[in-house]
UniProtKB/TrEMBL annotation:
This is Enoyl-CoA hydratase family protein. InterPro entries: ClpP/crotonase-like_dom_sf (IPR029045), Enoyl-CoA_hydra/iso (IPR001753), Enoyl-CoA_hydra_C (IPR014748), Enoyl-CoA_Hydratase/Isomerase (IPR051683). CDD domains: crotonase-like (cd06558). Pfam families: ECH_1. The lineage of its organism: Bacteria, Bacillati, Actinomycetota, Actinomycetes, Pseudonocardiales. PANTHER family: ENOYL-COA HYDRATASE, POLYKETIDE BIOSYNTHESIS ENOYL-COA HYDRATASE PKSH-RELATED. Belongs to the enoyl-CoA hydratase/isomerase family.
Length: 257
């Protein structure tokens, strides 16, 4: 569709979801939210998809909620009510999600970056939790952002709304890497290719593992973790991986180039 705001395509096991609403800096309008959610569902349900890339057109990754739509609406009619679903889709996706930022992110846009498993940006990308500057709070996005950020940085940046750069975003845990613009695609492609090498069920289970509450001591968790590990060693996927290693070939889940 010529007027769609989110594009979806699959190649070599990678689903690329592209925000394409540059006229409003890829703001989270009702149409963009709907199409983004549909694309994330599509990627989740497609067995051919191994990894998801979230990217954008235009100079801005995402400016956050569409404030024009928010103006004058009551609390029950605010678009932010639909946003938790999108953050949850990103956070709980059984397929790893990589965010590619060639430009800034603000507010809800940062929430999406934080919900992705890996995020890479160019030095020119800037960030700000700008909510307090317009009299609102970063409540919904706090659930994906706070697990990534160190506490001191979170207090400073949530409360001041100040702009910070990609280098600082790496330092505080929001981004995995900040690379020159000419290296952005190569770096993202490297992450995507590495992720497609993992077993689909193993990747999904590892994401769940990363999200689990930590036991108070390692000894309290060994029984459950041992059972989980042994089950995967004995599984069809695990046995295929072991056999492929012995035969010096790629496992059958690795997409063909």
């Amino acid at each position: 569709m010529a007027d769609e705001l989110v594009h979806y395509e699959v190649a070599a096991g990678i689903a690329t979801i592209t925000l394409d609403s540059p006229h409003n800096r890829n703001a989270l309008s009702a149409q963009l939210r709907r199409e983004l959610s549909e694309s994330l569902d599509k990627a989740r349900e497609d067995d051919a998809v191994r990894v998801v890339q979230l990217t954008h057109t235009g100079p801005v990754f995402c400016a956050g909620m569409d404030l024009k739509e928010a103006r004058g609406a009551g609390s029950s009619d605010q678009g932010v009510n639909e946003f938790p679903k999108i953050l949850d889709q990103l956070w709980t996706s059984p397929k790893p999600v990589v965010a590619r930022l060639a430009g800034p992110a603000r507010a809800g846009g940062i929430g999406m970056v934080a919900a992705c498993d890996i995020a890479v940006a160019v030095p020119e990308a800037t960030f700000a939790f700008s909510e307090v500057r317009i009299g609102v709070i970063p409540a919904v996005i706090s659930l994906t952002v706070l697990p990534r950020l160190n506490a001191r940085a979170a207090h400073e940046l949530f409360l001041t709304g100040d702009v910070f750069d990609a280098k600082r975003a790496v330092e505080i845990g929001l981004l995995n890497a900040c690379v020159p613009s000419e290296d952005l695609d190569k770096t993202v492609e490297g992450y995507l290719k590495s992720l497609t090498l993992g077993g689909p069920k193993a990747l999904a289970a590892t994401k769940e593992l990363l999200a689990r509450p930590r036991p108070a001591t390692p000894s309290e968790g060994f029984a459950d973790m041992n059972a989980l590990s042994a089950g995967f060693f004995a599984s069809e996927e695990g046995q295929e991986g072991i056999l492929a290693f012995a035969q010096k070939r790629k496992p059958n889940w690795v997409p063909q180039d």
